[in-house]
Amino acid sequence: MRKGSLEYWPHRRAKAQMPRIRTWQNVAEPGFLGFVGFKAGMTHVAMVDDTNSPAKGTEVMKPVTVLEMPKIYIYGMRTYKKRYEYIEPDMVAYDKELAKRVGIKDTKNADISRLKEQKDAVNVRALAFIDPAELGIANKRIRRFEMGVGGKDVQERIAFIEKWMGKELKISDVIGTGDYIDVKSITKGKGWAGVIKRFGVARGYRKATGKIRHLGVLGAWHPAKVLYTVPHSGHMGYNYRLERNKRVLKMGTAKDAPAINVSGGFVNYGSVKNDFVVLQGSIPGPAKRLVRIRKALRNKKAKKEPQINYISTASKQGS
Q1: Per-residue pLDDT tens for 147-162?
Q2: Could you give the CA distance from residue 42 to residue 67 in angstroms, rounded to a whole number?
Q3: Which CATH class is domain 189-237?
Q4: What's the DSSP call for residue 171?
Q5: Which end of the chain is less enclosed by CB atoms within 10 A, N or C?
Q6: Domain boundaries in the chain?
Q7: pLDDT by residue (tens digit) across 163-198?
Q8: Which strand (E) or helix (H) includes residue 96?
């Protein structure tokens, strides 16, 4: 009997460490809808429970994840148009100085005036990049990505991105304490795994099958083929995963970082030295893994300012 979930299928390895976000929140107010950070590690906090649980109003302990947020540079924008039933990228506009930094040499036909005159555009997104070397972690390659932008129409979004082109964007310009966000990342890679570890099937009886950590049967006699739902050994982990409605419990700048740094630094990461975000709960991936966030797409909870009484800075080296 299989015990593994078919919610995510097939279990394939991620192609890149920059997860793709295909859907963004549709808001009328101009503003950026996403950001990029790096997972530092986990600790726990003592906070007042403000939910409708039986512990409401009392102090409870909650596990939290710390993300270090680099500066984002807006180097351009890209419009999208509808062709038949598909929506495909069309025109681009760049800030020439930042475009050179990311390796774009040809910027002759990349003026904003062409985008403003375009009438068949159905959407526009901001082009941005981060430089992990500014954080001091081992990952030093510049990473480029797209971000969704809010606005009533395409022209309003273009005007908003134009104001930010060539400038630095911080996490405080996108979200605030108490907001709910979606987190997309890549899980830990665990290499090749058998059916017991990968899908949780039952161990076999040695005298009945001759094998123990092995699949008992590949399926029925008919249909005379092996269905895709039958568990097999294969690569485990390193998959794209999306965590919805993660609550932002605390935000801070480099000056506030000592208040959340654990003694001896986070395991396999070190100390946070830049802007940071503290999220309730856990998120996919190991330390130093790139994480993309966006404003929550399906959130129905009202924004509340959490009351945190204590943040654990005890060493996690022995955990």
Answers
A1: 999 999 999 999 999 9
A2: 9
A3: few secondary structures
A4: G
A5: N
A6: 189-237
A7: 999 999 999 999 999 999 999 999 999 999 999 998
A8: helix 96-101
